[in-house]
Amino acid sequence: MNLPSASREKSVGDLFSDLAGEASTLVRQELSLATMELKQKATYAGNQAAYVAIGMILGAVSLLALSASFVLGFAWILPLWASALLVGLAAGLAAYGTARKGLSALKNMKPQLQQTRASIEETKRWALKQVQ
Predict the structure, then answer these.
(1) Which of 35, 49, 64, 87 has its CA 20 to 30 A from that of 19?
(2) How far is CA 19 from the centre of its chain?
């Protein structure tokens, strides 16, 4: 099917209008991608912060709830002060390990918007091809 040359060819104004419309759509899509990526990173950071909080709570609970029973249990073989020290160190190590896991994950999190950056680069290459 052959179209007349007048209907096949667009004017420069029409081409720029189409380009502006497509560029506007791309910008909206880029912003949507950036928003989604930021939400994902914020959710991940919140989850890792929860590990830190849980570690702190576990440390406090373990010190309060179990310390007395362990201290009394170890007091059968150790002096009372030594059993209290042993129980305190064990509870502290458990709390430290849990909190460190969350902090380590937060430090290794990359805040850059990698998907958005790649999409913007692709859009830039596409736009340059359209102009040439």
Answers:
(1) 35
(2) 35
Provide the whole-model pTM: 0.43
d(CA 34, CA 39): 9
Number of Cβ within a 10 Å radius of residue 87: 21
Chain-centroid distance, C-alpha 76: 49
**3-state class (DSSP) for residue 124:** helix
Place of tokens 């609970």: 61
As separate numbers, helices (DSSP H) first and strands (DSSP E) second, the chain gives 5, 0
Please say whether the beta carbons of 64 and 88 come within 8 A. Answer: no
Check: CB of residue 66 under 8 Å from CB of residue 91: yes
